[in-house]
Fold this protein.
Amino acid sequence: MGDVFPEVRAKQKTIEDVIRREEEAFNKTLDRGLDLFDAEAGLERFERAVQMIESLPEFMGDTGGPAEFDASEMSRAAGYQKRDKLGAFVRRPDGTVEKKISGDFAFKLFDTYGFPLDLTELLARERGFTVDITRFEQLMGEQRERARKAQKKEEISVEKADLEITPTKFLGYDFLEAEALVETVLRVEKPQEPAVVLDQTPCYPEMGGQVGDRGMLHVPGHDRTEVGQLRVIDTQKYGDVFVHLTQLIQGRAPEPGEAVRVSVDADRRRAIQGHHTVTHLLHWALHEVVSRDASQKGSYVGPDKLTFDFSSAPLMKQQVRDVEKLVNEKIRDKAPVSWTEIPYAEAKKRSDIIQFFGEKYGDTVRVLQIGGVPHALNGYSMELCGGTHVRSTGEIGPFRIVKEEAIAAGIRRIEAVAGDAARGWAKQEAARQQEKFEAFSRKKPDIESLPVFESEASTSEMLQQIDASCAS
Ligand SMILES: [Zn+2]
């Protein structure tokens, strides 16, 4: 097969790597699960509780006794403070006892530790237990339902005909505020939450990982008074039309044909832009430090944080620190960030411009460039991107990777913060460290005191203090 498909042979090592990593990850999960199964779940406690139940007077009675006991009750009786329901002990008609692991506990193993149900069953069987599958399935169903609900965006009743109007013109690369004409107002059945479509807007709609803008929409009256004020809580894209999801604060909603003034929440947008540009820097730095093959699988860019998913082996701690350091260097460089529109046919020929193959691009694409001469398409980082960005890497502020983890076989996720979000994170982290230390020093009063985090210290100093106290 390798000869027919040379790329299969070339990819074989990668595939083998992925399979091996998956196996390792699975074994690790098993180890953790087994620990929990033995230590935390305390199967011995089960056994002891069984003995206790069997020695209880109720059980001895010839009335048949109570049919069921709660393991947690028994645990408490035995001096255990554990509040989790671990299992039940069901007395069969013949007087023997069925030792049952609760569905809640089996689900906890699965949900928290990725412990598969059939393994729980196997181990349970070895120890003479059964597992409450019905309850397990019920909890699985509830979780699926929660996930489905969380995923489901608030449906707005949009008639397709309503949206067959002129595409919305996006002004948000250059402006944060604009006058616009109301094309249509949707969701009239919820008059307090109208969805407004304008002919043009500075509000960025959720797209390419970047969240939708928030802002304000003002309906001016004829004599410089204001007849309506609405808060834009999200901006979404339906085809080529942007929909502003709003909440009426005062007055009335705008009407089709009316002129309105719309503005973006500038602080929030600034935070989002910093996170978007730094996502590109992160992507570039991963290529430099880890591998050219670390390709992007998805991202979230919000005001609070960014996440970046990519195909790779797990990163070593040192690699994470190196990536973080490199990104911070590029931020200190204050490199220019520029964007240029070029024909897609031209972009396709450039191997130095990152693009998603298989993604549908229009005839004209935007290239986001970091470094180099602005618009000369000679930056160190160049990607096709429709998002909004800062103008200089210096605007990003401090950058910190807070998590690096697996989200699927061969796919890693980095969670990071920059700018004010990083400052906020550093403050919280410093407080957490301080708390941990204080709790520790109460137990061991003779311990050398930890240098107090200076709440006025700059973020980079604070981050250094955090690193130092983690290392010690
Ligand atoms: Zn981008």
